[in-house]
Amino acid sequence: MIKDDTEVSKAFTVKNEKGLHTRPATEIVQCLRNYSSDVFFTYNGTKSDAKSVLGLLMLAAPFQAEVKVSAKGEDALAAVDAIIHLANAKFNVSY
């Protein structure tokens, strides 16, 4: 079996007024359960595992922050696209 090491990176702007907090982080982790690729978020020089709620919270990304999402693996593009879609939907969180 050949391992696919496709790498994909894109950026999104945090549209949630309260930033990237527990509820959006939980939505992200739940979304990424469907993907086998390694996925990371980078903000303000800090890189974090996007499949970890605690890791995402440690980024402390506020409203309007630009966050880079990168993935490596066989479904990297699909994983990144799913995160971009979720970010554009304010991570399915309404206040």
Automatic annotation (TrEMBL):
PROSITE patterns: PTS_HPR_DOM (PS51350), PTS_HPR_HIS (PS00369), PTS_HPR_SER (PS00589). Keywords: Cytoplasm, Phosphotransferase system. Residues 7-94 form the HPr domain. SUPFAM superfamilies: HPr-like (SSF55594). It comes from the Bacteria. InterPro entries: HPr, HPr-like, HPr-like_sf, PTS_HPr_His_P_site, PTS_HPr_Ser_P_site. It holds the Pfam family PTS-HPr. CDD domains: PTS-HPr_like (cd00367). Transmembrane segments: none annotated. One of its GO terms (biological process) is phosphoenolpyruvate-dependent sugar phosphotransferase system. One of its GO terms (cellular component) is cytoplasm. It is found in: Cytoplasm. This is Phosphocarrier protein HPr. It comes from Aerophobetes bacterium.
